[in-house]
Specification:
By secondary structure, the protein is mostly helical. The chain is about 65% helix and about 10% strand. It is globular.
C-alpha cells in the first residue's frame, strides 16, 4: 500500500488522484462540446440514449437509468423530460409495477444516437485511445476493473 499519514495523500497519491479527476473533466468537456456542436446532443443525453439502446427492448426503469448514468432520480427525470420533448425517448408505465415508469428509446432517438456515435467514438479515439499504447490500455482496463467492485 502507498499510504502515508491518514490526514494527507503522498505526492504520488495526489498526482494520481488529481490526474484522474482533471483528465476525466477535460475529456468529458471536450467530448460534450464536440457532440453538442456537431449534433446538438450533449454528452449526458448521448449517455442516456446509449444505455437505453443496450437495454432489453430499449427500455429501462427510471431508477435504473439514473444509476446507469450516475445521476440523481430528479436529475434523470429532468434529462428524460428534455429527451422526450426532442422525441428521442418516451415514458411508459412499467408492466411489472404500474406505479413505476420506464424510459424507452424511440426510433428517432436511435437514429440520433447512430448519427452521433461516429463523432463520439472518433473523439474518444483521438483524445484518449490514440495517446496510449496497447500495454497502457490493458493496464488501465485492469486498474478500473480492480477498483470498480469497491465503487459499485
Amino acid at each position: 500500500m502507498h499510504a502515508t499519514s491518514s490526514d494527507q495523500l503522498s505526492r504520488l497519491e495526489l498526482a494520481a488522484w488529481r490526474g484522474l479527476l482533471r483528465t476525466h473533466s477535460r475529456l468529458a468537456r471536450e467530448l460534450d462540446r464536440e457532440l453538442e456542436t456537431a449534433h446538438g446532443l450533449p454528452l449526458t443525453h448521448y449517455e442516456v440514449l446509449l444505455h437505453l439502446e443496450a437495454a432489453p427492448e430499449h427500455r429501462l426503469r427510471m431508477g435504473d437509468l439514473a444509476e446507469s448514468v450516475l445521476l440523481s432520480q430528479s436529475g434523470v427525470t429532468r434529462l428524460v423530460d428534455r429527451l422526450e420533448c426532442d422525441g428521442f425517448v418516451v415514458r411508459e408505465r412499467c408492466p411489472a409495477d404500474r406505479r413505476g415508469l420506464n424510459a424507452r428509446l424511440t426510433g428517432e432517438g436511435l437514429a440520433k444516437l447512430r448519427e452521433a456515435r461516429p463523432t463520439h467514438l472518433a473523439g474518444i479515439r483521438e483524445r484518449f485511445v490514440a495517446r496510449l499504447s496497447e500495454a497502457e490500455l490493458r493496464a488501465l482496463a485492469a486498474v478500473w476493473t480492480r477498483l470498480r467492485p469497491g465503487i459499485d
